[in-house]
Amino acid sequence: MPLDTSIKSVLIIGSGPIIIGQACEFDYAGSQAALSLKDEGIKVSIINSNPATIMTDKVIADHVYLLPLTCESIEQILTEQKIDAVLPTMGGQTALNLCIEAEERGIWEKHNVRIVGVDTAAIEKTENREEFRKLMVEIGVGVAKSKIANSFLEGKEAAQEIGYPLVIRPSYTLGGSGGGFVHRKEDFDHALSRGLQASPTHEVLVEKAVLGWKEYELELLRDGNDNVIIICSIENFDPMGIHTGDSITVAPAMTLSDRCYQEMRNQAIKMMRAIGNFAGGCNVQFSVDPATEDIIAIEINPRVSRSSALASKATGYPIAKIAAKLAVGYNLDEIENQITKTTSAYFEPTLDYVIVKVPRWNFDKFKGANTELGLQMKSVGEVMAIGRTFIEALQKACQSLETNRLGLGADGRQSRNLEEIMHSLEHPSWDRLFHIKDAMSLGVPLESIRKITHIDKWFLTQIMELVSLETELKRYSLNNIPTDFFTNLKQKGYADAQIAWLLGNVTEDEVYNRRKELGIKRVYKMVDTCAAEFPAKTPYYYSTFEDENESIVSEKKKIIVLGSGPNRIGQGIEFDYSCVHGLLAAKESGYEAIMINCNPETVSTDFNMADKLYFEPVFWEHVREIIELEKPEGVIVQLGGQTALKMAQKLHENGIKIIGTSFDDMDIAEDRGRFSDLLKQMDIPYPLYGVAESAEEALEVAHKVGYPVLVRPSYVLGGQGMSIVINDEDLEKAVVKLLRNLPGNRVLIDHFLDRAEETESDSICDGDEVHIIGLMEHIEPAGIHSGDSFAVLPPFSLPESVINDMTEYSKRIAKALNVRGLLNIQFAVKDNKVYVIEANPRASRTVPFIAKAYDVPYINIAAKIMLGVSKLKDFKIERKLKGYAIKEPVFSFDKFPEVEKQLGPEMKSTGESIRFIKDLEDPYFRHLYKEKSMYLSK
């Protein structure tokens, strides 16, 4: 069936701000779906309250509504726009819940809007645990023994009937919220109460726990003719008991027998067909008994999920794009395969490589948090790596994590504490993967590790091989390593820096030069979805060590954009938004735009976004060799946050041009000491400060500048390691901890301006002119990280003299730092005197917020200025904001109920929303002002 021509306009519901359990994978899905529908001539409207995403950008949709995700907002849109259909499957659980609420209120029927892409009856069947269990029994799919409970008494009766261990699964929640395992009767009451409270319907499923079983996922697509295809099989490295969002996952499945896989496929297709009559995407999760290969169904999600983004990047098959076309009438065989351009979308991708996803956590931001992993998701982001083998991909994933690891160990950061290691194996946290290798290195038998972790023996054998290789490598010196063995090390994912560490007294560059002498070079393979059975047209590549290089270098002038790596607190989706605009600006300026990034959730790693995508770690060795191959005009580091900025020094030292602000000028701003010296020369006020490299020096500085003091390291993002201290004892502890965690760094000690207001400016400089993008006033006082503060645009209570000083200082600093592109400055205002706290000559988390508030494509403008193809005078900038815009931070403290929610200089928010008000009499603003800024009225 071809396109349903009665659908002229579609509303896509977004997922709102980034929270743990619902991250930027839905920004990717919504963006893909919108572009896919626009290709068909359909007008697309989007509702989403997140200003940091590309999804809420005009390049994606015809109409963008930056409104709260409520039925009132839906009514407003439907009154203003003629909407024929709503697509709620691209915005996670938030979008589905809003769609159901609007349906229950009769809003869709009132405005004659159809729901496409899902059947709301299907949502009820999948989210209601008892309905799901009954349906599975009815169609002959195995499920764990379970009972539904809507009260405390029913839950106790269910537990008595089923027996321990148990799992509590609340209905209608996201990211496993409120769920958990119960091993002992004494712990049940608390777990049951938490689950009942977490469920919006006060309902939980009390289920027999299948601890130690293996966990798998299948991604499916179904069309209106009831054709179903399996896009990808995904195997969890971690067994049942850890939320799939917190599990290391591998694609395709590695340890399934063909019989079991075929049975799993058949059951998944049966499940998808049973839950309702709809066309779109679906994710199914299974558990498999490792001894018998008995299969039970865990859950089915009739929407795009976190795994859909991973499967899309893993296979090159754009699930959200195809699902959107299916939702408006097309069948699979009527849609062109985006990769080959010659076959249809009605085919199942074939992988001749291995994908590994490793989650990224930020437990350091939640002091005192329970870091043990379980049914409730706790990770804030993830990385994906592609290799020819599992172990190569696993090592590349470890290099992508931004945790200062060079791979899976072999970097001097391994643990030698056997007691700590064995506890970690039994109580999994973010570092269990590394401790498995550490245990093997200490001689713990593989079978003992398997019994404790329940991880499949095949995976453990692969890691054990690394231990053997490292033992063999230590027999050689750099100059006598056999070429075959050296090649084998590289094919197993070892970085040059790891080999250097293992050899000792050798540098990374020496290892790099030696392997080049031996002709061991990185080559690039195309992600083609069909194992090279058909010619592929897509420029999507990963690296390995073989003979044939499939990445053909063009004659065009090229620009490389370095991505921001995994999402984490302090560096989120706003930097991916910036990178996407950098790519678009480079293409519009006549360059071939090349992207390097390793985050599967993001729009920047969509193979349609860049002229060429290298899905690789943003890790020096990988970046270096791509640059050597492509020979770009330069590299953009200003848009990818701290991940890309950290590469600037290496690029500078190797004579590679940095596009925009130079390395030295960026370094002045990053080095807090050098920057304060610059302010002193310019006679711009700043808090008294000093730099220390030891606790003794820190005490001297603190006595000189006066308590309270703000203690912080140089070269960090998101306020990492910052603290405010009021005496010598606390200062000494803070400095010792910083220098231990960030060796080689220097500590900056500022006098803290107590009870000061905090403000910000963002600007663009082209070398001659400076344009102030926006001035913001924070609701919270100085001392609360800017990312955790409510920011109001434009300022609402600052005197004109303060605004003039902020503007003047911004312009002078931009000129002094020779900024080409973006500059963010943070100020403290006390007694109407403006002090400069810090300056960042790069994209900031506030630029997307300002761009959306004023409806001006500021990142695109800045990128063209960085590229040197435009000046500020070339742009006609018209701001459209009437009233005020407020940036609202969003937190995920519900995942860590044991953690104190006190905010301070270290950022803790996971995302943000935008809210518009007409004037300062708005009730929302008056409440905010009263509750959040009592200090201002004193």
TrEMBL record:
<dbReference type="GO" id="GO:0004088">
    <property type="term" value="F:carbamoyl-phosphate synthase (glutamine-hydrolyzing) activity"/>
</dbReference>
<keyword id="KW-0055">Arginine biosynthesis</keyword>
<comment type="pathway">
    <text>Amino-acid biosynthesis; L-arginine biosynthesis; carbamoyl phosphate from bicarbonate: step 1/1.</text>
</comment>
<dbReference type="GO" id="GO:0005737">
    <property type="term" value="C:cytoplasm"/>
</dbReference>
<keyword id="KW-0028">Amino-acid biosynthesis</keyword>
<dbReference type="InterPro" id="IPR006275">
    <property type="entry name" value="CPSase_lsu"/>
</dbReference>
<dbReference type="Pfam" id="PF02786">
    <property type="entry name" value="CPSase_L_D2"/>
</dbReference>
<keyword id="KW-0547">Nucleotide-binding</keyword>
<keyword id="KW-0460">Magnesium</keyword>
<comment type="subunit">
    <text>Composed of two chains; the small (or glutamine) chain promotes the hydrolysis of glutamine to ammonia, which is used by the large (or ammonia) chain to synthesize carbamoyl phosphate. Tetramer of heterodimers (alpha,beta)4.</text>
</comment>
<dbReference type="InterPro" id="IPR005479">
    <property type="entry name" value="CPAse_ATP-bd"/>
</dbReference>
<comment type="pathway">
    <text>Pyrimidine metabolism; UMP biosynthesis via de novo pathway; (S)-dihydroorotate from bicarbonate: step 1/3.</text>
</comment>
<comment type="function">
    <text>Large subunit of the glutamine-dependent carbamoyl phosphate synthetase (CPSase). CPSase catalyzes the formation of carbamoyl phosphate from the ammonia moiety of glutamine, carbonate, and phosphate donated by ATP, constituting the first step of 2 biosynthetic pathways, one leading to arginine and/or urea and the other to pyrimidine nucleotides.</text>
</comment>
<protein>
    <submittedName>
        <fullName>Carbamoyl-phosphate synthase large subunit</fullName>
    </submittedName>
</protein>
<keyword id="KW-0665">Pyrimidine biosynthesis</keyword>
<keyword id="KW-0067">ATP-binding</keyword>
<dbReference type="GO" id="GO:0005524">
    <property type="term" value="F:ATP binding"/>
</dbReference>
<feature type="domain" description="ATP-grasp">
    <location>
        <begin position="676"/>
        <end position="867"/>
    </location>
</feature>
<dbReference type="InterPro" id="IPR058047">
    <property type="entry name" value="CPSase_preATP-grasp"/>
</dbReference>
<dbReference type="GO" id="GO:0004087">
    <property type="term" value="F:carbamoyl-phosphate synthase (ammonia) activity"/>
</dbReference>
<dbReference type="InterPro" id="IPR005483">
    <property type="entry name" value="CPSase_dom"/>
</dbReference>
<keyword id="KW-0436">Ligase</keyword>
<keyword id="KW-0464">Manganese</keyword>
<dbReference type="InterPro" id="IPR016185">
    <property type="entry name" value="PreATP-grasp_dom_sf"/>
</dbReference>
<comment type="similarity">
    <text>Belongs to the CarB family.</text>
</comment>
<dbReference type="InterPro" id="IPR005480">
    <property type="entry name" value="CPSase_lsu_oligo"/>
</dbReference>
<dbReference type="Pfam" id="PF25596">
    <property type="entry name" value="CPSase_L_D1"/>
</dbReference>
<dbReference type="GO" id="GO:0006526">
    <property type="term" value="P:L-arginine biosynthetic process"/>
</dbReference>
<dbReference type="GO" id="GO:0006541">
    <property type="term" value="P:glutamine metabolic process"/>
</dbReference>
<dbReference type="GO" id="GO:0046872">
    <property type="term" value="F:metal ion binding"/>
</dbReference>
<keyword id="KW-0479">Metal-binding</keyword>
<dbReference type="GO" id="GO:0006221">
    <property type="term" value="P:pyrimidine nucleotide biosynthetic process"/>
</dbReference>
<dbReference type="InterPro" id="IPR013815">
    <property type="entry name" value="ATP_grasp_subdomain_1"/>
</dbReference>
<keyword id="KW-0677">Repeat</keyword>
<dbReference type="Pfam" id="PF02787">
    <property type="entry name" value="CPSase_L_D3"/>
</dbReference>
<dbReference type="InterPro" id="IPR036897">
    <property type="entry name" value="CarbamoylP_synth_lsu_oligo_sf"/>
</dbReference>
<feature type="domain" description="ATP-grasp">
    <location>
        <begin position="133"/>
        <end position="328"/>
    </location>
</feature>
<dbReference type="InterPro" id="IPR011761">
    <property type="entry name" value="ATP-grasp"/>
</dbReference>
